Structure formats: C-alpha cells, structure tokens
Amino acid sequence: MPVKRQKRAKKTARVEPLLSKNDFASYLETKAREMAPRDVQVIVRGAAAARARAAADHHPRLGAQIDLAMRILTDHATGNCPQIPYYTISLLAEAVYYFLDPNDAIPDWIPDIGTADDALIVELAFELGAAGVERYCAWKGIHLASFMAGAALPVKAAGKKAAASGKRPGAAKKSPARAKSAAKLARKKR
C-alpha cells in the first residue's frame, strides 16, 4: 500500500519593515516644527537644483510635486502668497530639504530605490499640508485633482497674456484688497 504524502504548507514569515509610513510622517512633522523662515529662503535659493534633480528622477509624480512645492515656497518667501498656513510651508520646505539630502534613510546612490523614501516624504508633505496646498492651487488656478493624478502643472491663461504683454506672470490676478490699493495708487498718480 502506497504511503500518502501530505503536502506541507510553507509558512512564509511576514517581515515588517524597519520604518513605516507613520515613522516618516512623524519625522517630517518633527522637522517641520523646527523650520524657520530663513531656512525657507535658503531652500528657495536652491530651487533650480531641486527642479533639476527632480527632473532626473524616475518617480514621475515627484518632479511635479517638487515643482509645485518650489512654486509655493517661492511665492511665500517673496510675500506674494502670505495666506498659506506656515504649517504647510514648513512641511513642504522640510520635504524639499530631505529630497536634496543624498544621505537620508535610504541613500540616494542606491540604484532604483534610493529616492523611494524621498518620494514618500514629499507625498506625505502634500497629504499633511493639503489644506494649504489646496488654498494655493485655488489662488493660482491650478486644478489640484488633475495634478495629483499625474498631470503636468498648467500655465494659467492670465499668465500667458501677462507674459506676452511683458508683465510678470501672476500679476494679472490680484486679490480684491490689492486691486483696490492699485486703483488708489493709479488715481493718485493722475
């Protein structure tokens, strides 16, 4: 009589990651609380380097997020967009700083996975600072849902008209208070 062999079920041990998404979120929030306005200005000065590095990265969404983060930080640092909560500004600034640091949780020189933690940190900054990002996008006329789905950042029609007329992009749309101030100034000059 043949002996029946029972199939053994292979037990695969589930290995927990050393760092979880919550660990990265906690790190980001802790560092963002330490961010000073002068630190934001330093990061804004490195905007070209951040954009160039993001363009060379293989994470498709990361480049667009770094570009939007740099737009928000630049507008904040120049005083063009003071209505964004500093919590959002500090989260985005810390995320860009983390992105630019090659020696972080996963060193960037490791092929294929080196910037995975950078992409996660930037994504978390956008999630945690969503209210401020949404406010900025509404002010600039950027459709955030399309952007988050991976679409490129649109250039506003007003910005194109302003560029064609020689005016600074973004100058075409003013807040009601700025429009009143500009109108008063124009009347005084007459």
Give a brief description.
The protein has about 190 residues and is mainly α.
What number of domains? Answer: 2
Level of helix content? 55-70%
Which percent band covers the strand fraction?
under 5%
What average pLDDT do the residues reach?
A: 78
What is the ordering of alpha helices and beta strands? Answer: HHHHHHHHHH
Which ranges are low-confidence, i.e. pLDDT below 50, for 5 or more consecutive residues?
Answer: 156-182, 184-190
Whole-Å distance between the termini? 112 Å
Number of strands: 0
Query: What's the total helix number?
Result: 10
Gross morphology: elongated
- What structural class do helix, strand and pairing data support? mainly alpha
Rg calculated over all Cα atoms: 23 Å
Largest sheet features: none
